[in-house]
Design a protein that fits this description.
single chain; alpha/beta; 15 helices; 17 strands; 20% strand; globular
Length: 449
């Protein structure tokens, strides 16, 4: 199948390449052309597109493997999909269940007890509910850490969604050697599902289990990902137990010998920064969750100053509570400016790089980062003909500072259009997902109300 997107504004996210008017071709799962308009296509002027907007962009109702489809984008923007570099998709069941509490009370008093009763089938439906929200937010891949990961993979596959999972094991879940099994099972060529080594956190994992995780890292010579330095309490506890901060302690065990990254990274020492620079680690900031839980503001500009790459995550829908990347992008730059008392602290274009290219690289999705020939066709279209995007003084800054989920008019993953003009693809049945999630919620949570 070949799809030709014409009359499009295109933001490739290649360095130093500005938005241009042209077209993009997709054949099967790959981008095969990005560039100036080809024969028979003329780029529209602002006036002509604006006048023609009433008819909207027409997407195909159905396609076949040998279809050739022509889509007139009417001057709307094509760009790489957002990469949600830290998520707990199965936590949608817990959305708005236990709000307005600090992190450790929230986890131990409310979240962990319900999670202990969740089955793989519960997590299957809860993960699919998150995917619905990802698609409407222009998210084309997530870096997921949760329980019953084979059921998560099944849910993502059934939706046609790209997902990289990482281990969330700790003292209360599966044997920590589970991450070795999953790493070798799910990293198969051509699959939408992949896996990276990881575990929940130092403070939920005893020293014997930590040593076993270190053995798995060395056996596979693979990067590792973990929650770290999210709260002052967490850092102080690790210092009391081991005489080191979480990042420095885990590095002393060989956990970061092959790279990886940390989620949150709010309370950092000089040694922590040095470890991240030396090991080539990624920082995944989660501003919505950290703000709501009052955990703190990640020192994003300090990471950038030191050359440490930053990606963005939503965290889970129980602590955020929404999975909206436009809100996350605004918070990343807004909180950085507030923390530094400097309105120029973090430019919107840098935030877009975090949300797309850096997220892709943090998740080791090296062929999903830009709109370039040969890359995977993980593409979103943003409707520029909404009041919040006009006038078009600076489209990149509009996306970060005034953009909204209402602007997402198409989400394509692996060459398949899964969401368009407020509707999901034929293989996705939102009503069934809502009903199943409600049934799970009634069984797990209603008795305690």
């Amino acid at each position: 199948m070949t799809i030709r997107f014409r009359n499009a504004r295109i933001l490739t996210m290649n360095p130093s390449e500005d938005i241009f008017l042209g077209e993009l071709h997709v054949t099967d799962s790959r981008i095969t052309y990005v560039g100036p308009s080809t024969a028979g296509s003329t780029a529209p002027s602002t006036a002509s597109v604006s006048a023609d907007k009433a008819t909207g962009v027409v997407f195909p109702a159905s396609v076949t493997p040998d279809s050739v489809i022509d889509i007139d984008c009417r001057g709307n923007l094509l760009m790489p999909g957002f990469k949600n570099a830290h998520a707990h998709s199965g936590m949608t069941i817990l959305r708005s269940l236990a709000d307005d509490k600090p992190l450790h009370a929230w986890l131990n008093e409310d979240i962990f007890p319900v999670e202990a009763r969740m089955t793989g089938e519960d997590i299957y439906w809860a993960s699919q509910l998150s995917v619905l929200e990802y698609l409407t937010s222009g998210i084309t891949a997530c870096f997921d850490m949760y329980m019953e990961q084979e059921d998560v993979a099944r849910a993502m596959d059934d939706m046609g969604f790209r997902c990289v999972q990482t281990g969330g094991v700790n003292d209360f879940s599966k044997d920590v050697r589970w991450i070795d099994y999953m790493y070798n099972k799910y990293n198969q060529p051509g699959s939408l599902q992949s896996y990276e080594l990881g575990f929940h956190a130092e403070y939920t994992t005893n020293i014997d289990n930590l040593k076993t995780i270190g053995q798995v890292v060395q056996k596979n010579r693979a990067p590792l990902y973990v929650h770290a330095c999210e709260t002052k309490e967490e850092v102080e506890g690790c210092l009391q137990r081991y005489g080191k901060t979480p990042v420095a302690f885990l590095d002393s065990l060989g956990f970061f010998d092959y790279g990886g990254g940390i989620y949150h990274g709010i309370y950092m020492s000089e040694e922590d920064y040095e470890v991240m620079q030396r090991r080539g680690l990624y920082l995944v900031t989660n501003p919505g969750s950290n703000t709501k839980l009052a955990s703190g503001i990640a020192p994003v500009t300090e990471y950038l100053r030191r050359g440490i790459p930053v990606a963005i995550g939503t965290d889970g829908p129980a602590s955020n509570n929404c999975l909206d990347f436009f809100r996350e992008m605004f918070l990343v730059t807004g909180l950085a400016k507030l923390r530094e008392h400097d309105a120029a602290a973090l430019d919107a274009r840098e935030v877009l790089t975090m949300a797309t290219v850096n997220g892709s690289h943090a998740m080791r999705l090296k062929d999903c980062d830009t709109l370039s020939e040969g890359q995977k066709a993980d593409i979103i279209m943003l409707d520029l003909w909404q009041p919040n995007m006009q006038p078009l003084n600076n489209i990149a800054k509009n996306i970060v500072y005034s953009g909204s989920k209402q602007n997402v008019c198409m989400t394509m993953i692996d060459g398949r259009i899964l969401y368009h003009n407020g509707k999901f693809a034929d293989n996705i049945d939102p009503c069934t997902i809502y009903r199943k999630v409600e049934e799970v919620k009634q069984r797990l949570i209603a008795p305690a109300e």
